[in-house]
Amino acid sequence: MAVFAAVLAAHLPLLRLPYYWDEAGYYIPAAYDFFRTGSLIPYSTLSNAHPPLPSIYLALWWKLLAFAPWVTRLAMCVLSSLALLAVYQLAIATTQKPRVAIATAVLTAIYPVWFAQSSLAHADMFAAAATLWAIVFFLEERLCLTALCFSLAALSKETAIVTPIALAVWQAWLAFAPRRWKPASEVFRHSRLAKAGTLLLPVLPLACWYIYHWHRTGFVFGNPEYLRYNATATLTPLRVLLAFAHRVMHIAVHMNMFVPVLSMLACMMLPPVDGRKRISINNQLLFYVIILANLLFFSVLGGALLTRYLLPLYPLVLLVCVNTFYRRLRQWHWLIALSAVAFVAGLFVNPPYRFAPEDNLAYRDVILLHEAAIRQIEAHYPDATVLSAWPATDELSKPELGYVKASMQIASIDNFSLLQIEKAAQLSDPYTVGLIFSTKYDPPHLPFNLGRRNETLDARFFDFHRDLPPEIIAHLLGGKVVWRAARQGQWAAVLHFDHPQLAMQTQDGLLPLHYNQP
After folding, report:
1. DSSP per residue over 135-154, as a string?
2. How many angstroms separate the CA atoms of 145 and 153, rounded?
3. Which pTM was predicted?
4. b or e along 207-238 (b: 16 or more beta carbons within 10 Å of the residue's beta carbon)?
5. Domains of the chain as residue ranges with CATH
6. Which of the four pLDDT bands, split at 50, 70 and 90, describes residue 444?
């Protein structure tokens, strides 16, 4: 209850925000479908074959309290609190030091990626909480609870199955690995193989879910476009290598994580303080197996390089860092304070490179911009057909997401790149208003910009594109900007079109050169 009270107090200003991005695009519609009809397969959005446990959990909260964003965010704060309690228990199990456990849990709670996800209704916090408790129970040799928690993780998000499979392979390898002095005893070998078998049990409920999904939809792993984007289109060797480099940066550098990581590396050059023990080699190897398996897995699969996929890994990294501070430095509290300051700063100050707004409080800026733009449209053009891109198209057409009182007519494009604006010029839908917004954090003059070559690779493998400014979009489509606002490098604008153009000319010099595409 103490952990929950602290988490809730920290997130109070965020509880009434309407739904954001993937919340609006999948998780809330899927849960809302289950809430209304009991259907485990969503029908108001395309089924991605995600397991149904998050929908069931959220629907239960809505049934008990109300269908409202604050209830959803309250439910997610409960999950975050349970996960943080698991972080504390994990630190106790591996270090036996309450001070180290408290410091690790606090740093995890305020790490920007974790903090942002603690009130967002994504499946990753479900999977992280269950995975962390499974690791705790595994270290305590409580194998039935380990299998149960890993099963809950897999039924929350299918990709969570990588951790028990990796641990099963590790246990099997330990059973047969050659020993330096003598071969492993039969008792030891059987014990490891029993653990490996138990760790593989969560595959069964996940397989049952996929069989059910196939029976109901005809697709095992979701609709073909989703499968192509997240699996078959990601298997290029160069793409995997680039994705792995991104993943290493996410786990060791992103959102000021470099502060505790570099501090840990510096501390390792100091001699240990007498009487202070390290995390055992066996437990450290367990952590490294989990981290490496997830980094590799999410470098091969997953079209978007979202950091929330790595959510269970951040506490493991922080635990190793904090215990190293404690073991190597008498004044270790100063490094905890330095890391805490860096993390709190990361919540409010955007990094000098492109990132997903959901990695810190930048997502709040996106929501506030969209709310303000939609209020302008409702006030001045309530009956208009609105040209926009996802997720604003859902925000305008689905009142349950919290942006509009009644559904509005929309004309949809994918984004606001030149190619899509050309498509908008040819649309048959008679739109008269446009809701234009930045689809990513991409302000000009970023210090860490790797240049055109890197942008070409990002466009090829990671759907990178440049959004045209509202003024240029208005010019190309024969309209004018009637409202615009910006917050922390992100923007939104409302455009009005008297007579949308049916064709565009880009060779008149009004487009800056860097917007031209081959």
Report:
1. HHHHHTT-HHHHHHHHHHHH
2. 12
3. 0.92
4. eebbeebeeeeebeebeeebbebbeeebeeee
5. 7-359 (no CATH), 362-515 (3.40.50)
6. low
